[in-house]
Amino acid sequence: MSVTPAAAPRRPADELPSAAAQRTSALGPDLDALRRQDPELAEILVAELQRQSDGLQLIAAENFTSRAVLTALGSPLANKYAEGYPGARHHGGCELVDVAERIAVDRARALFGAEHANVQPHSGSSAVLAAYAALLRPGDTVLAMGLPHGGHLTHGSPANFSGRWFHFIGYGVEAESGLIDYEQVRALARAHRPKAVVCGSISYPRHIDYAAFRDIADDVGAYLIADAAHPMGLVAGGAAPNPVPYADVVCATTHKVLRGPRGGMLLCGHDLAERIDRAVFPFTQGGAQMHTIAAKAVAFGEAATPAFTAYAHQVVANARALGGGLADAGLVVTTGGTDTHLLTVDPAPFGFDARAARGRLSAAGLVLDTCALPHGDSRGLRLGTAAVTTQGMGEAEMASIAELFVTALRADSEPGRLRGDVRELVRRFPPYPDR
Ligand SMILES: Cc1ncc(COP(=O)(O)O)c(C=O)c1O
């Protein structure tokens, strides 16, 4: 089943593009020139595309952008310096990139129903940094999901600016259910009176109750910052609740389910627009990356199509199917399943810790991450269906992936022997089908 504009109709195996064609088709017409000038780097590009095409990319934060997004990224807009904002730049020659940024902003606002959008953050972390810079002063107290429960580095890690410059209090998830304990969040908010409450996670598989967080923030007079880096693509496709009506500021990445270039984005109301813009430039960033902003505009345009809505819903259906297959085989799927693209599972019933399990899965060609688990100190596995769904896979393929996954974790199996089966599956779903 083809559910995305990027996905080609499935072809019988004997009509599949040659490995060589698959290896280079996404790298564009300038690959030969790069090969002549710098064969060492050209081969790395070719080999990385091959690696991405040759295994199951189950990292929950990754996806395959369209060729259109790649084209914008590899365009001469990369040459342009553009400090400031459209119509108010510190450099000459910005007439055209100004148009690109205005398009990106307008599309982001329309897509998410936001009064204001800033599309300049270089990454999700830069977006969070700017949100804090706009709303907080060093030393302020912030309530966010604790890192051992799935908070991001920018939610108070001592190794990150956030933990060094702010006083973070961590809330958690219930050990048994794996669900956010909203009563605990409220109690911590009342006890610590934070200046901001942050909702968002790197590994929470369920929808977040933004209305409940808004209520808690209002209860203590705090700002609400939604760090929706993970679900923002699902929001765009109508497959997850939108934090925009509830949060003072929404931070997001553009490269996960949203399927755009690597980068960040901020959304807010008119009241905070100027503070947010100044917090990005000149407070935390210099020149905007215009090639990336143009690529964000392309991705927002794609995300506004009915095909993307179908894609977002298929991502969730696939995650549910995959989670069901893993649970049926005896893995512990936290929270009992998922509402999103993301699953976290405990491989302990198979006798492997998360690192060993990830190693076995990697040997079989299944690429994924380890993550925190709600209960105890042990880690689990985090996987997502955004990339495989872009490739055109559906529930039938999720059943195959679950089977490969479980076989790789059986103590008596040799995971490397599954490599051929994985290749056979992914060759039917090339991320960049030959045109
Ligand atoms: C919740 C959350 N916030 C922030 C980020 C940071 O994004 P980036 O890696 O682009 O800095 C991530 C990335 O995974 C994330 O999941």
UniProtKB/TrEMBL annotation:
Residues 1-31 are annotated as: Disordered. GO terms for biological process: glycine biosynthetic process from serine; tetrahydrofolate interconversion. GO terms for cellular component: cytosol. Residues 35-403 form the Serine hydroxymethyltransferase-like domain. The keyword Nucleotide-binding does not apply. InterPro entries: PyrdxlP-dep_Trfase, PyrdxlP-dep_Trfase_major, PyrdxlP-dep_Trfase_small, Ser_HO-MeTrfase, Ser_HO-MeTrfase-like, SHMT-like_dom. Pfam families: SHMT. Its EC number is 2.1.2.1. Its cofactor is pyridoxal 5'-phosphate. Pathway: Amino-acid biosynthesis; glycine biosynthesis; glycine from L-serine: step 1/1; One-carbon metabolism; tetrahydrofolate interconversion. The record marks 255 as: Plays an important role in substrate specificity. GO terms for molecular function: glycine hydroxymethyltransferase activity; protein homodimerization activity; pyridoxal phosphate binding. Keywords: Amino-acid biosynthesis, Cytoplasm, One-carbon metabolism, Pyridoxal phosphate, Transferase. The keyword rRNA-binding does not apply. The modification N6-(pyridoxal phosphate)lysine is found at residue 256. (6S)-5,6,7,8-tetrahydrofolate binds at residues 147, 151-153. It catalyses: (6R)-5,10-methylene-5,6,7,8-tetrahydrofolate + glycine + H2O = (6S)-5,6,7,8-tetrahydrofolate + L-serine. It is found in: Cytoplasm. PANTHER family: SERINE HYDROXYMETHYLTRANSFERASE (PTHR11680), SERINE HYDROXYMETHYLTRANSFERASE 1 (PTHR11680:SF35). Catalyzes the reversible interconversion of serine and glycine with tetrahydrofolate (THF) serving as the one-carbon carrier. This reaction serves as the major source of one-carbon groups required for the biosynthesis of purines, thymidylate, methionine, and other important biomolecules. Also exhibits THF-independent aldolase activity toward beta-hydroxyamino acids, producing glycine and aldehydes, via a retro-aldol mechanism. Thus, is able to catalyze the cleavage of L-allo-threonine. Homodimer. Belongs to the SHMT family. This is Serine hydroxymethyltransferase. It comes from Streptomyces boluensis.
